[in-house]
Amino acid sequence: MWRVNENCIGCGMCASIAPDIFTMTEEGVAKVAMQPTGDQTVGAAEARDSCPVAAIED
C-alpha cells in the first residue's frame, strides 16, 4: 500500500509527476489520492524516487 509519510515537505513533485495518484492537501502536504494499479505504478515509482525527502513509501 502506497502512502506519504510525515517527512513530506510539500514540494509538490509527486503530484506533478503522477497527478492521478498524488494530490496536495489543504495543509500543504502530499497524500495518496488512489492506490496505483498496472501502468500507474511506473509513475508512482518515479514520484517516489524523485521525492527529495523520501516521504513516499510503497
Description:
This protein has 58 residues and is of the alpha+beta class. The protein has two helices and four strands. It has helices spanning 13-17, 40-50, and strands at 3-4, 22-24, 30-32, 56-57. Strand 2 (22-24) and strand 3 form a beta hairpin. The radius of gyration is 10 Å and the shape is globular. It starts with a strand and ends with a strand.
Short description:
This protein has 58 residues and is an alpha+beta fold.
**Biggest beta sheet summary:** 2 strands, antiparallel
**Structural class assignment:** alpha+beta
Question: What's the average pLDDT?
Answer: 98
Helix amount, in percent? 25-40%
Count of helix runs? 2
Residue share in β-strands? 15-25%
3D shape: globular
Element string (H = helix, E = strand)? EHEEHE
Rg on CA atoms, Å: 10 Å
Q: What is the tally of beta strands? A: 4
Low-confidence stretches: none
Strand order of the biggest β-sheet? 1-4
- Termini separation comes to 5 Å
Which features does this protein show?
58 residues
Question: Secondary-structure blueprint of this entry?
Answer:
Blueprint: E1 3-4, H1 13-17, E2 22-24, E3 30-32, H2 40-50, E4 56-57
Antiparallel strand pairs: 1-4, 2-3
